[in-house]
Amino acid sequence: MGKVVLITGGTSGIGLSLAEAFLEEGAFVAVCGRSRTALDRFSQAHPQALAVQSDVTIREARAAMLDAVSERFGRLDVLINNAGTFVERDFTGDAHATVALEQEIGLNLTAPIHLTGEALRRWPSLDAIVFVTSGFALVSPTRAPTYGAVKAGLHGFADGLRRQLAPQGTHVLEVLPPTTDTPMNADATGPKLPPAEVAAVTLKALRQRRPMALPGQTKLMPTMLRIAPHTLGRMVAKL
What we know:
There is one protein chain. The chain has 239 residues and is of the alpha/beta class. The chain has a single domain (4-237), classed as NAD(P)-binding Rossmann-like Domain (Rossmann fold, 3-Layer(aba) Sandwich), CATH 3.40.50.720. Helix content is 46%, strand content 13%. The protein has a 7-stranded parallel β-sheet, with helices on both faces. Helix 1 (13-24) crosses helix 6 (195-208), helix 3 runs parallel beside helix 4 (101-122) and helix 7 crosses helix 8. The chain is globular and about 50 Å long.
């Protein structure tokens, strides 16, 4: 029987590629997003999937989304915390450097922690929980230090949760993509990894029950952090 998979932010970018990859493998897929237009477009392309309009930063909306998954599929096997945002902030003189900071932290860090806890309360024996963080969780980007901070926080949560849930067999996977060709990175220059490649690496890591998935150039980051951290920092400074 196919697994039931819930993907937050599943109507575009990495989330959409993950949804399509799981559907190809015969999984039952639910996605959520805030845009009704994007959800309708997803439903037209994938009528067998469940598309739920939900703002994951709101407790009642998360509860309604989990209710919808339960009503449609009866269970949840894999939770993928993918929804997020990238905000550039300049603390060298911008008087508005912290505008909407709470919203950024809420979406990128607080919401996935809350959703994970709420899903585990309903389904204590989840097969897997996935956190899509970033290579910037290991080395923070110069132009967006708060993004690096919240992704590092999610990295730490995934690390501790993995050990906590190991006795019950729940696989906790962290995905650390590099800059990926998504709407969030539409204005970014330089190379961008196709989101389908991130999805393929993620599904392989799930099958192998690995702790981390390192698509593209991020596979070099843990080694560089050990042997050449200053060089890695200079490389990230250019991003």
